[in-house]
Design a protein that fits this description.
Blueprint: H1 22-34, H2 42-56, H3 95-110, E1 115-117, E2 127-130, E3 142-152, E4 156-163, E5 166-176, E6 178-184, E7 190-196, H4 197-210, H5 221-242, H6 270-273, E8 281-282
Parallel strand pairs: 3-8
Antiparallel strand pairs: 1-2, 2-3, 3-6, 4-5, 6-7
């Protein structure tokens, strides 16, 4: 593991091969090294937990079968329908979950990522892992289970994002600069924490995955036009591999946008998106 302990309390993928990311990674590494370990604030956690109880009841609960997996895990690429499927809430915190987390980190490091969500390895549950340094034995390994958004900043920034499910594709996405989240760690302990800059960006990207939202859903039409041919190539790759028609076509998505502010459900989940509104507000 990256440090002697997990922060059991972050993930999005930014490739360590992306030139624009290197300076941010070095700067964030210095901040991580100089800062104390994250400690969940118990009083705030209890207050946040009460607000989330009603919303969580709407989530479908993951069964042991939903959390079963075989090693080695493999990255699921666009346009596999797994990436758009509903992800279930985890209620069992056992050795199998810890093993899944460890295997997700293994895949993340092998593929030069700094973050990964469970649906990206074919497991439709609300789980993500993250290490901003992207090197085993360096930085800190963070795990978020059943994350929820509390607040996000009005200030928004543009950043060049990549995604393991979209190999070698990079493009600009605008998102809030900071975000306050509620989640559980790998033992089931609830905590609240605020992220800013790169960690906030990573969280939002991976949180989108857990909502069935992909990073190109958040791009402007001009930016999307720049990678449209690459997305079409992935669609053809899927058709050639499976012998089935692509479950979605980028050519039909022109003008479609995901929910505002970098959060929310994909268009297939719009009816439920209103249920999240009470938990997300600007600062």
């Amino acid at each position: 593991m990256a440090c002697s302990t997990w922060l059991h309390p972050i993930p999005f993928f930014i490739s360590r091969r992306t030139p624009t990311v290197h300076s941010n990674l070095r700067r964030f590494h210095r901040l991580i090294s100089a800062s104390p370990r994250l400690q969940p604030p118990p009083m705030e956690v209890r207050a946040q937990a009460r607000r989330l109880i009603a919303f969580e009841k709407e989530d479908e609960v993951a069964s042991p079968a939903d959390l079963s997996f075989q090693e080695p895990l493999k990255i699921v690429e666009y346009p596999d329908p797994i990436l758009r499927s509903k992800n279930k809430r985890i209620v069992t915190f056992d050795d199998n979950l810890k093993k899944l987390v460890e295997e997700m980190f293994n895949v993340m490091y092998k593929t030069d990522g700094i973050g990964l969500s469970a649906p990206q390895v074919g497991i439709n549950v609300q789980l993500m892992v993250f290490n901003p340094v992207g090197e085993r034995g360096e930085g800190e390994e963070i795990v978020l289970v059943n994350p929820r958004v509390g607040k996000y900043s009005k200030k928004r920034v543009v950043f060049n994002e990549g995604c393991l499910s979209f190999p070698e594709i990079y493009a600009d996405v605008e998102r809030p600069e900071s975000v306050k989240i509620d989640a559980k760690d790998v033992t089931g302990t609830r905590f609240v924490y605020s992220f800013s800059e790169l960690p906030a960006r990573v969280f939002q990207h991976e949180f989108d995955h857990l909502q069935g939202v992909l990073f190109f859903d958040r791009m402007t039409e001009d930016v999307l036009d720049g990678i449209r041919s690459e997305l079409e190539a992935l669609e053809k790759k899927y058709e050639d591999k499976t012998g089935k028609p692509s479950p979605e076509k980028i050519v039909t998505r022109q003008g479609r946008k995901a929910a505002a502010a970098g959060f929310g459900k994909s268009r297939t989940h719009e009816k439920k998106a209103s249920g999240v509104a009470g938990l997300i507000h600007k600062e």
